[in-house]
Amino acid sequence: MSKDNSQTFKISRRTILKSGAAVAGAALAPGALSLGQAQAQDRANTMVVAAPATPQSLDSEFDVSLGTFEAVACLYDSLVEFEKKPDAGVPTASREDITDYPDKPGRVNMVGKLAESWEIDPDGTWARFHLRKGVKSNWGNELTAEDVVWTWHRKLALGAIGGFFANTISLKRPEQITAEGSHTVTFKLDHPNPLLLKLQPNLYNPIYDSKKLKEVATDDDPWSKSFLENNSAGHGPYELASLVRGQQAVYKGRADYYGGKPKMENVIFKEVPTSANRVQLLQGGAVDIAQYLQPLEIIQLRSAANVAVETIPATFMIWIELNAKIEPFDSIDVRRAMNFAFPQEQIIKAVFQGLASPLTACMPDIYPGYNGDYWEYGKQDLEHARELLKGAGLGDGFTTSLAYNAGDPVQEPTAILYQSALKEIGVNLELKKVPAATFYNNVTERKQPMIFYVDSPWCPDPGYSMNLYFHSKSFINYSNYENARVDELIDAAAKTADQTARLEMMDEVQKHVMREAPWVFGVFPNYTMARSKDLMGWTYYTSNNMRFQDFYRAS
Amino acid sequence: MTNSQGGGANGSTPRRDILAGSGPRADERRIDVYLSRLRYLLDVLRARPLFAVGYVIVATVILMAVFAPLIAPYPPETANPDDFLQSPSWRHLLGTDATGMDIFSRILYAPRIDLTIAIAGTAISAVVGSLIGATVGYYQEVGGVPSFFSGFVMRSADVLQAFPVFVFAIALVAIFGQSLQSIIAAIAFLNIPIYLRLMRSQVMSIRRMRFVEASYVAGTPDRYIILRHVIPNSMAPVLAQLSVNIGWSVLLTAGLSFVGAGVVAPTPEWGSMIASGFQNIITGQWWPSVFPGIALAITVFGFALVGASVEVLADPARRRAMAGSMRERRVKEA
Lengths: 555, 334
Fold this sequence. Notes:
- The complex is a heterodimer.
- By secondary structure, chain A is α+β, with helices and mostly antiparallel strands.
- Helix content of chain A is 32%, strand content 21%.
- Chain A is built from 17 helices and 24 strands.
- In chain A, a hairpin with a 3-residue loop joins strand 10 (238-244) and strand 11.
- In chain A, helix 15 (462-470) runs antiparallel to helix 16.
- Chain A starts with a helix and ends with a strand.
- Chain B contains 14 helices and no strands.
- The longest helix of chain B is centred in the middle third of the chain and has 37 residues, at 103-139.
- Chain B is 73% helix and 0% strand.
- Chain B is an all-alpha fold.
- The two termini of chain B are 45 Å apart.
- The chains are: A alpha+beta, B mainly alpha.
- Chain A binds chain B through residues 275-276, 279-280, 294, 296-297, 299-300, 343, 346-347, 349-351, 406, 409, 412-413, 415-417, 419-420, 423, 430-433, 435, and chain B through 77-82, 84-85, 98-101, 178, 260, 264-266, 276, 279-285.
């Protein structure tokens, strides 16, 4: 919320009331949805989003709930971002250019955000960012190098999500981030790290307004955790006008944003928990975007008037963890058999309605370094699965269980189809429906023999992906997979800037992982944008969220 | 002393007197009695045709449960991804769900689970609730520790019934784990206060009757009096409640499954079928949830009708009133 709220509140309140009334009306009478004349004048610069949830906390250090992604993306900016390019499959959409560019610094195609220029050591031991001058936060404070330093010190001090990022780029001590004058900041590492630049655009690496946050800090809360839960202090294109959890968040475009005021000046982010209701609201014209829809709903919306549906390959991956520390999944042959029995093709057709592709690797197929050649489970082969089980001494089959998330509608049908397939090789799969609220605890406890997991690594780098899921010491290696050679390669790749050598190392890791199958390789579900036809500008980000500042009305 | 000697609490003719004896005359008499009862039942069904509908529905549901393996054209728990979300056709009478399972077959199998849970849960609650209710009612007015204990039990039942039933059921299943036994236990636990109260109020009036007092004076132990004299003469309202409760339990089972606290997928169960199919209604595939919903509604309706008929037939005053109206109708017809 800005210091000049009083000046703009009348305008935003009217807009909010009109849009809110439209949404409420739409919810009551979805068949006769209309924004009405009163709102028509604001429609050009107002966007209403139907989302499954409003943000829980606005502090990216601690919260990874769905609504928080969009909040962080519009309230904050990072130092740099990937250049955008048109999507090859969907001409109306753009996406980040995450291609590996051997001739560019850091081998990435980036443009400045809060930093207008930067230098990076070819060996990856330091990076220097020259900040844009005259950039104001939503509290009116000018961006300085001290903001960047304070931001990273906070990450190191709190040691949560930001602490993980700091560790990933080998930042251990506060003195490794230093201000050189008012608008230059330098990161110095003890050894080369290939992700020093690549991790900067990550959605959860925003830069804070340290002046404001120091003002609101207390002795008990020196890093302003309480303040950031409900407020923002950043340099992004929007500021928070209001947040009523469980109902809606309202964002207001900032006139003093260094990149110019966003076209969508007002964004109403409305919580509509049921996807069917989100579909109805979009069809009726009461909202401009309906998030997280079911595959069948997406198919249905394709024929709806005034609705555009764009679906593109994304970084999402769905797989089943096979717990390598629980029998019989300590056997590689059994894990491979589970993969050969998985009816992937049928699941893509029946459950995902074709809006997904086979998970042919242990990392996103749109990232540099992906190699699909090690994929051998493409065709369901029950005979081979039986042979593998026989070889593992389980010719008569066995009984195990699969935990799935009650809150994810694709997991239950996937589990049922898999159960039927496994019956044919003598494996009795018991299904455990876990409430959404406790599902993640079940994943992190690592006590289930098999459990679904959905994730996407938010850095387009094979080393980052492999480290997350397959290093024996990684906190999200939920399959308890352990291979000394894999650990050795991941560790080596994290300490060299020689990208060619790194790609070779990660290729070998993929080879081991795909053969030893710590996952049942599921699918890459597409990312789908369901929007009003006249709402243009959608850009896909590897963090699988949207940014309101990209959108504009065609008319 | 038996209930026949006491004349029965509800004033009905003691069964043992009529059917007593042996030999050809006794057999003829027995046949006459059965025939007259059958005629009476037919008269009742003519007078109240909805009761007949209830009996037909309940009988059909039970037959479905028993003969499902013979009638169902497809296995109820085998997915067929090549046939997902097929609309009703001759191949799949009621269509298929999102995993290609045949809805008709699953609807036929569903009563096996729903009725098992409902009947087991209701039976347990009726037995336990009646026993506690009888004991509480018997000792309610004797004073001292037994009365205090009775009061304590009744207040505990008040507390139990103060919770919203459905929320309480979800909590119980969450605590004991998602299994058939947990759902049965939850339903039994929730129904106990109903039977407890019914039985207590009946017993409190029966307890003052002469045959109970005579038995007490004769030195018959309390346990024997409760089990042999008091409970048998207090069962009528409990029996009437049973059918209604079974229908209600079917609904509760389905409700628990609908919110994900019921049976484990892909067990054929109406509530879970409705839950897994309701998202498809918006996309035009109505059949995965509508047909199980209709089956559920009809079943609950059937049990409610049977419950209503038992209530009428078990109440001498209402039975006499109905007999009177039947006589009047016969006279008019004549």
